[in-house]
Each structure stands twice: as structure tokens, then as C-alpha cells.
Write a structure and sequence with these properties.
- This protein folds into two domains: about 120 residues, Toll/interleukin-1 receptor homology (TIR) domain (Rossmann fold); about 90 residues, no CATH class.
- The protein contains nine helices and five strands, in the order ααβαββααααββαα.
- The strands form two sheets. Strands 1-2-3 form a three-stranded parallel β-sheet, with helices on both faces. Strands 4-5 form a two-stranded antiparallel sheet.
- It is elongated, with a radius of gyration of 20 Å.
- The relative contact order is 0.11.
Length: about 210
Amino acid sequence: MVLADGLIKSLEGANYKVISNRTVEVGQSVIQVATQTLADSRVPVVVCGTRRTIGSSPATRIIQAARRNNNSVLVVQMERDAHLDGVDFGTKVANYYESKELAISQLLSALDRHYQSLSAAPLSNEPPGAEPGLDEVTNEVDFDPSAVAEFRAAMRDEIVRKLPAALTHHEFLDRARLRVGGKLTRAGILLFGAKATALTPSATIQCRA
């Protein structure tokens, strides 16, 4: 874990929650925790490519779980002689052994592209000509931070695991698909926008336990 520790600390410093052998609780299996997380959300897997990783059972099982759930697999080659070119791990994004700083920057960029692609994915299956739905992207960019904070404080634990408190409000809105390309959706405006009634005067929000 010595090589991976630097990568983990950098990801945690960028407000990412990392699941690894170092972070799971005593009595838990990193494979079980990772597999459950992958089944519940679209989080990516970062593979630290070392000679030991190639062909190892834990890495293979986690990567298989990621592919079953269409999660991205991002590979960082940690050692020069860890020959990964012929191994179908995932998308290689950086060479850590050449430059730690550059590799971390490239990995963070790849993670950012991953979450941007989720935010930009089509959100509505409504036929052409249908009335605008709550997933429609608007031109509104302003939201009420206090309203977002209050909403996040009341979220259930299983939702918090998918949208952790470490996320900024902007990251939260993007991952929750309430904001796309920096612009709020109608749902985002209804929940957190300052102009909700101007956009949809007759809208009401119902919360059911």
C-alpha cells in the first residue's frame, strides 16, 4: 500500500471518498465494500497498476464488479516494470512512476471527465413536443446555498453514501443531476433556485416518507 498511499491522500485532499484496504473497518472485506458501493452508484474504480496487481484476485474481482455495473475503470501505472499494455484492466490515464504530480493531475482530470459525462447524460425520455419535464436544463445558474445545506443535512444515510458530505454544493448538484453544464435543471430550481415560482408558478413539491 506504500505506493498507493500517496495517490489515496491526493484523492482525499481533492474531497474524494476513497475505499481501499486502508479505509475499510476491521472485520470488513474491501472486496465486499467495493462491490456493494459499485452496485449502488456509478463511482469509478482507480487501479494502482503494480507488478503485484496484475492478475491478482482482489483487483480482478473488483474490476469485474465494476464492469457488471458499467462503472469506469481508470488505471494508473505505478511501477515502470508493471507491464499493463497487454492487460485488459481499463483505461490507462497516467504513469505515476514518471511524475507523481503529473499523474495525480491526470487522474483528477479523468475523474472530473467521468462525473461530467454522468451529468451530461440524457435525463429525459419524453417524446418531442412534450411539456418540459423536471429534468430539462434551464439557463438559471444561481441557487440558494442554505437551501442546499438544509436539504443535504436531512438526506438518508444510503443517499449520503452516494453523495457524501465532502462534496461541495456544486459537485453535489452535478452528481445528483440537478445541474448540467453549470445550469440548473427545473428540479434543481424548484428545490434550490431563487426563481422557482417564476419558472413554474403552479409547481408544488410533495415529500412522502
